[in-house]
Amino acid sequence: MIRRATEEPVTQQPTPPAIHTLTLDGEEVSFTAGETLIDITYRHHKDVPNLCYDPRLEPFGACRLCIVELEGANNPVASCTTLAEPNMVVTTRTARLETHRRVLMEMVASENRDIDVDPLSGYASQQMRELVDQYDARTGRFQGEQSGTSREDDDNPFIKRDYDNCISCYRCVRVCAEQEGDYAISVMNRGFDTQITTEFEGLLVDSACTFCGQCIQTCPTGALADLKALANKDVPGETVTTRTICPYCGVGCTVDVMTRGEQIVGVLPAMDGPANEGALCVKGQFAFDFVHHPDRLATPLVRGDDGELHEASWDEALDRAATGFRKVLDEHGRHSVYGVASGRAPTEACYMLQRFIRAGFGTNQIDNCSRA
Amino acid sequence: MSNPLVDMDKPDVIFCIGTNMTECHPVAATRIKRAIARGAKLIVADPRRIPLADLADLYLPLRVGSDAALLLAMAHVIEREGLVDAAFIDERTVDGELFLEHVRKFPPEWAERISGVRAEDIERAALWYGTAERGAIYYTLGITEHICGVENVQCLCNLALMTGNIGREGTGINPMRGQNNIQGAGDSGALPNNYVGFQAVDDPAHQKKFTKAYGRETDLEKGPTKVTALEMCGDRIKAMVIAGENTVVSDPDRDHCEHALKSLDHLVVIDIFLTETAQLADVVLPATAWGETDGTCTNTERRVQRLRAAVPPPGDAKPDWWIVSQLAQRIGFKGFEFESAKEVFNELCELSATYHGLDWDRIEHSEYQWPVPHAGHPGTPRLHEGEFVNGRGIFKLIEYRDPAETINDDYPVWLTTGRRLASYHTRTQTGRSAGIDYLLPEETLEVNPSDVDAWGLADGEWAEVSSPRGSVRIKVRATDRSPRGTVFASFSFADVPVNVLTGSGYDPITETAELKVCPVRVEPA
Ligand code: SF4
Ligand code: SF4
Ligand code: FES
What we know:
In chain A, 24% of the residues lie in helices and 19% in strands. By secondary structure, chain A is α+β, with helices and mostly antiparallel strands. Chain A has a five-stranded mixed β-sheet with strand order 2-1-5-3-4, with helices on one face. Chain A has a three-stranded antiparallel β-sheet with strand order 10-11-12. By secondary structure, chain B is of the alpha/beta class. In chain B, strand 17 and strand 18 form a beta hairpin. Chain B is globular. At the A-B interface, helix 4, strand 10, strand 11, helix 7 and strand 13 of A face helix 2, helix 5, helix 11, helix 13 and strand 9 of B. One iron/sulfur cluster sits between chains A (246, 248-249, 251-253, 276, 280-281, 283-284) and B (25-27).
């Protein structure tokens, strides 16, 4: 059991998995053992339709949309649960597959009250609508009944739970268990009565839920939706995203901030963020609107003779700030000035403050707040 | 962190001490949960039964401030059972023999008397970590916010060195940084002892380098730390500039701190809100916030990442770097004509040893973890692979020390402080984000249900908590997360200023305040 450095070089790499090939829509492509067919189609931008697939989660195989034809097999197989094997011949689009997908989408469409949900609902919220439109499936051929019940009684301010729009793909349940390790939501009943719920069917706040928002972001229908973003749905303008880093803890999760005009309307996790790989917590996901709070300082303030702080121009304020330092410097020398930088501000802010103290006063009288 | 975040899925034994990770670094904690699901063993040492403890295979409920005793005894067991990585000690460390001799003094039974953790549990933790193929240590302020913070960290390093659990995938000594850019703040040279990139100020070669770069000579001697500077306010220190920090609420001993800032001749505060600290200033300069500022930040795994502005700031708010460079120019300092964050960052890289191979354009996709010594270098996700930065790993001979104040007849209860999931620091931001109140409307004092009864308190009712420095009124919450005799509160709410109580002592080396331990008295109010 005792590892000895001499027995095992510290730089040893695991043996790389073997590379094989198969034929994908007439083209020879390579893969590594353990990959599913859908992973390979994705890598080659084949866009096989799917609803219950999330590349971060274990294969599930519920919606059957991702089916592909395999040479030598009678029936199509679900590409998200089928492991690639050497020399397979895979076809992703045939008339039979497309017909099958269309029927499936018609049924899915008929079960849902709303096909068109606001894109602010979540990262994957447009997935079902796009497929319904792609397969021209708003036919009403199947007289569906909605398969879930919404939980309007859940008064939490973050997560909308409208199971009338649920298609039982279980992505929310799986992301909660597999990605978050929280097991806050679960599945009740089977078949048509399937219902996504919490333990004891209660409110999320009374469950193991941490309001990380991961279920919202993986839901392909908007049944689970981002209430904070939706509160901004009437803000005019096109939604634009800007990539940046969460302002809270040191994990440094990558986020895509959604804006309309001059307003931040919501936050999306970046699936390719190196620290988070699509995950966020309640702070990074929902605590963004402090930026627009009316308490924000918008003008410099200068203390007047009356002892109160008064609004001032930059010119006045900088002069006053500079004069104060100049005076102290002249009267008490350069060791009378001290700077405290912030671990919340960008690196450039900290760098400039230490430069101010070092290049300006010639001292090392600078620190940051990490000691607090 | 010595190792990257992706390594958190990979250890077979994970030892978390003094880190409430599911609340303070939630996304990092999801990786640990995945490691557990894969079969990794989790050991959690914390005075409180934090949520992470619920996931642990072995939970070590130690008395606040007794970390070193626990860790010394673990080293003792690893030595006694012959689980040391002799080859690693031989090839890569110094003072190994001395250390192995030293730890013979600290059997688990000794540590049990100090820490309250059962000797057999200490044995088990040591056996698990000591026999792990890949053992990883994670810690946060629960280790460092003590008078012996540095010694605690050295104890953890000793454990990793004696078992060779460093410099490989899935191992390491991994502090989780609390604030989004606390790493970047240190990297940038906002420290009294280091220039940018941790170049010591008392090295004449560095002094020379920066004299040339900045066009002015800087002292060879270190500056005082912030803690000392606050002591010197009104005396030697007459003027301060404080950026983005709510010192008055976040620092220990609030009255003392407020008094210090009030005694200055001149205080300039740069911030996004009129915080309790800004209210004391002579001049308040409005800064742009997250989402409005272009810049960079560096996370806990040393990854340098771009911050991007998405919206314009309110009114006349300006980026910090602009404000400070303008102020410098007004005072008459030369060389502060910067035009953009990019220009500032590129100068920083130029002068830094650790960022030397980076520039603004190269960090566009967040691929680099420092050190990046030269352009074309791929970055360093894992430190100490093959060799330590300073040559060899040094064992430190640590003795256990009691906290600065220990419980006594007047103050018979241990108070420990921390953060909670839904609120952040002094709530200047989370407190102003809609909905957060739903999850965390107010501060509470977490008290063990048996203590609630024994001390004549009631769940949901008010209590008065006092230390030698002051007292606060706070609502009681009965919970098993607190062990008997220890209570917990966060410092997030201004109306429950828990930091009027803390501040009994400081680590002599880092001057980090002992915020994690404070003897108090708890009475019905
Ligand atoms: S709520 Fe959304 S993610 Fe969850 S099962 Fe229903 S459709 Fe799928
Ligand atoms: S989303 Fe949560 S875990 Fe990620 S950086 Fe922000 S606060 Fe930290
Ligand atoms: S995506 Fe494969 S079955 Fe749903």
